């Protein structure tokens, strides 16, 4: 929006929304269900909001689904600065390294800082709550963020499991445990379908 | 999800979510802000949900922003069957033709019909409310759906206005009037920035 005059309450909000557009150019390890290409973090965020809407009845007690949806709409915006770090990359070690966490915190300060103060602070708090993964809303949101790529991989015939040479034990540890915590029946369903992919012929 | 067993409440919901993935392959007339490619309807839907969250304070009285967000998450799913019909295509005539409306109604019946009955009916009603554009929530949601491509075109230096040879009068009639109805201050801001694009040197 160069030269458009982005001062004032509305100007700052629209500048943020134009900045957010860049999330459509951040590509993830997972593919579309038809395996035709990798998915980007903007369409992934839409898909997760739809997951929350459709699977609300599978959330634990005390979950407010409207907050979960807002959290999921915002949760990946930091990737505009940091990129997506695939959960299975660097043998599972890169995803929550200290350098990565510091880069994401700086990205949150910059990107949410484009907004008028009150809303910027509220969004940053909601993003931090998601990352900390402790409140019922965050735990459910995180379980959906882990479940959706499993669905993509089942549909695509392997997807990022093949690309990163993932074992069933790694899937259970890095992904299944998180899904089970927030949505146990969902992990039960996915586990039954994912398990067969990892069975080697004896 | 062929062969995955998609009966039962959870199976039907997950089959719907896998079907919804196809919205990521429906491309629109508008481009990304950097003009690098056309945007798809899934990432556009995410962007609109973010617009609603960020611009809630610019909505008219009686608007419930959580409902607007749900409406926007769902509003383009019919395009999996029908494709996106650009508002400026066929000189503005194709977008709300009778054949197009009938195709969209059939798509809504098929796609939302994948879900368990109660949720499928609720989603279909929310989609129909958006299309009818009469309730305060729908009018605000529609104004955002019209405003976001204007933002994309301003940022991209013309975008779909160039591709469809749009005049300023057509923009006001097809787009501006809708934005003004739901979010008058938003149209004021966009109009001031869009107008210059259409001014021919004399
Ligand atoms: Ca991510």
In a few lines, what is going on in this structure?
Two copies of one chain form a homodimer. With 202 residues, chain A is mainly α.
Task: Give the biggest beta sheet of chain A.
Answer: 2 strands, antiparallel
Q: Please tell me the total number of domains of chain A.
A: 1
CATH class type of chain A? Mainly Alpha
Which value, in Å, is the CA radius of gyration of chain A?
A: 18 Å
What name does the CATH topology of chain A carry? Hypothetical protein af1432
User: Which whole number gives the mean pLDDT of chain A?
Assistant: 94
- Give the helix/strand class of chain A: mainly alpha
The CATH architecture of chain A can be given as: Orthogonal Bundle
Strand-residue proportion of chain A: under 5%
Q: Summarize the helix and strand pattern of chain A as letters.
A: HEEHHHHHHHHH
Distance between the termini of chain A: 59 Å
Q: How would you characterize the overall build of this protein?
A:
- Two copies of one chain form a homodimer.
- With 202 residues, chain A is mainly alpha-helical.
- The first copy, chain A, has a single domain, classed as Orthogonal Bundle (Hypothetical protein af1432), CATH 1.10.3210.10.
- Chain A is 63% helix and 4% strand.
- Chain A has ten helices and two strands; from the N terminus they run αββααααααααα.
- The first copy, chain A, has helices spanning 8-20, 41-54, 65-74, 79-82, 98-112, 117-132, 136-156, 160-163, 168-182, 184-198, and strands at 27-31, 38-40.
- A two-stranded antiparallel ribbon of chain A has the order 1-2.
- In chain A, strand 1 (27-31) and strand 2 (38-40) form a beta hairpin.
- In chain A, helix 3 packs across helix 7 (136-156) and helix 6 (117-132) packs across helix 7.
- The first copy, chain A, is globular, with a radius of gyration of 18 Å.
- At the A-B interface, helix 1, helix 2, helix 3, helix 7 and helix 10 of A face helix 1, helix 2, helix 3, helix 7 and helix 10 of B.
């Amino acid at each position: 929006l160069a030269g458009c005059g982005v001062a004032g309450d509305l100007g700052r909000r629209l500048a943020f929304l134009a900045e957010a557009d860049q999330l459509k150019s951040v590509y993830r390890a997972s593919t579309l269900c038809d395996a035709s290409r990798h998915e980007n973090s903007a369409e992934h965020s839409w898909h997760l909001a739809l997951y929350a809407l459709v699977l609300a009845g599978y959330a634990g007690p005390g979950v407010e689904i409207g907050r979960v949806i807002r959290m999921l709409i915002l949760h990946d915006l930091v990737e505009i600065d940091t990129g997506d770090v695939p959960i299975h990359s660097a043998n599972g070690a890169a995803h929550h390294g200290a350098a990565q966490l510091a880069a994401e915190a700086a990205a949150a300060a910059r990107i949410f800082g484009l907004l008028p103060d009150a809303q910027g602070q509220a969004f940053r708090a909601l993003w931090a709550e998601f990352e900390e993964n402790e409140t019922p809303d965050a735990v459910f949101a995180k379980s959906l963020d882990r479940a959706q790529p499993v669905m993509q991989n089942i549909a695509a015939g392997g997807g990022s499991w093949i690309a990163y040479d993932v074992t069933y034990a790694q899937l259970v540890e890095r992904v299944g445990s998180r899904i089970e915590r927030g949505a146990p029946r969902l992990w039960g369903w996915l586990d039954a379908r994912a398990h067969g992919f990892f069975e080697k012929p004896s």
